[in-house]
Amino acid sequence: MRSYYELPAEDQTELNLGLIKGQNLNQVLSLNLPSSFVFKMGSHSNCALGINKGDFVVVRRDIIPESGQLVLVKTQGKFVLRTYAFPGSHEDQPRDTEFSAGRKYVTYLPDGTPEFELFGVVTAIFRKLGRAAPSPEAPVPGSLTIPRGNS
């Protein structure tokens, strides 16, 4: 059973609010799995792929990556997003194609040894829009702040 609904092709311009009522985002994004992790992007280094600073990236460790998939790897002591490719496979792709535009590939040593540690496969990317919820200590705009005495 699917945990999400797809809009029919003729309804692409309008959303029907009833289609998503009661859906659980934990199931839709696979967040409830012990092999799922959520990372928050700390830089603009993947803007060419449409992933901006502050976006959230869902990574699953239980999926075996295929060539061309976006993966999270640890390289040079930090986590980064890269396009997965087998040794030498991305070098055959022309650089002006849509497939390779803006992508950074995993790197291998000349003997084929990976220069990265694979963490998992990116399965979803989402962003929060609008203002963040105010902290409980923040005053509500337009309200009076009553000073508290020490008595």
Shape: globular
Give the CA-CA distance, first to last residue: 62 Å
| Main sheet attributes: strand count, strand direction, barrel closure | 5 strands, antiparallel
Q: Assign the CATH architecture of the domain at 23-126.
A: Ribbon
- How is the CATH topology of the domain at 23-126 named? Umud Fragment, subunit A
Give the fraction of residues assigned to helices.
Answer: under 10%
Radius of gyration: 21 Å
| Annotated CATH homologous superfamily of the domain at 23-126 | Umud Fragment, subunit A
Secondary structure tally, helices: 1
Strand tally is 5
Q: Which strand order spans the largest sheet, edge to edge or round the barrel?
A: 1-2-5-3-4
**Name of the CATH class of the domain at 23-126:** Mainly Beta
Structural class: mainly beta
Unreliable stretches (pLDDT < 50, length at least 5) are: 93-99
Percentage of β-strand residues: 15-25%
Describe the structure.
This protein has a five-stranded antiparallel β-sheet, with no helix packed on it. The termini are far apart. The chain is built from one helix and five strands, in the order H-E-E-E-E-E. Strand 3 and strand 4 form a beta hairpin. It is an all-beta fold. It is globular. It has a domain at about 25-125: Umud Fragment, subunit A, CATH 2.10.109. Helix content is about 5%, strand content about 20%.
Quick take:
With 151 residues, the chain is mainly beta. The chain is built from 1 helix and 5 strands, in the order αβββββ.
